[in-house]
Write a structure and sequence with these properties.
The chain is mainly α. It is built from five helices and two strands, in the order H-H-E-E-H-H-H. A hairpin with a 2-residue loop joins strand 1 (44-48) and strand 2 (51-54). Helix 3 packs antiparallel against helix 4. It is elongated and about 55 Å long. The protein starts with a helix and ends with a helix. The model is unreliable at 1-13 (pLDDT under 50).
Length: 148
């Protein structure tokens, strides 16, 4: 492989490699939170008298779908899989709505029989929304500093 071909492959990310190093701290926290929400959908959400029900048997389907939507928005709204294909405001909006849906579903389903899967879903959704809020505020700070 010539040096020119190697430079083209590494600079344009045409190899199809996933580059997680391009994510900032807030995006990393959001990504981990989305992963937690996706895993928590398969864990017990309710447990009564030794019997438990996994989230995927109910509202966990919605939270799993929201986690996948958030991960897709993150992948296409950043340079993780190549050049950004989704504008920043659209990425934040899609991911923020999905994270809020997760948090609201978890709060609505919370009861005295809640099991650890539902708690993980709640904590993951709240951390996800908090990370996006932090990213939004950091972006506004950077934007106002550039304007000065």
């Amino acid at each position: 492989m010539s040096t020119e071909q190697h430079t083209q492959n590494t600079s344009g990310n045409t190899s199809g490699a996933v580059r997680l190093s391009v994510l900032n701290r807030q995006q990393q926290i959001a990504a981990v939170s989305m992963g937690v929400v996706a895993i928590a959908a398969f864990l017990p959400w309710v447990s009564v008298f030794g019997l438990s029900v996994a989230g995927i048997e109910g509202d966990g389907k919605l939270t799993l779908l929201a986690a996948f939507a958030g991960l897709a928005a993150l992948a296409f709204g950043t340079d993780v899989i190549g050049r950004r294909k989704l504008p920043q405001p659209a990425y934040v909006a899609v991911s923020g709505i999905a994270g809020a849906v997760v948090a609201i579903v978890a709060i609505a389903d919370m009861n005295e029989f809640a099991a650890f899967g539902l708690y993980l879903t709640l904590f993951g959704g709240v951390a996800w929304v908090a990370a996006l809020g932090w990213e939004f505020l950091e972006g506004r700070k950077a934007g106002s500093a550039d304007a000065v």
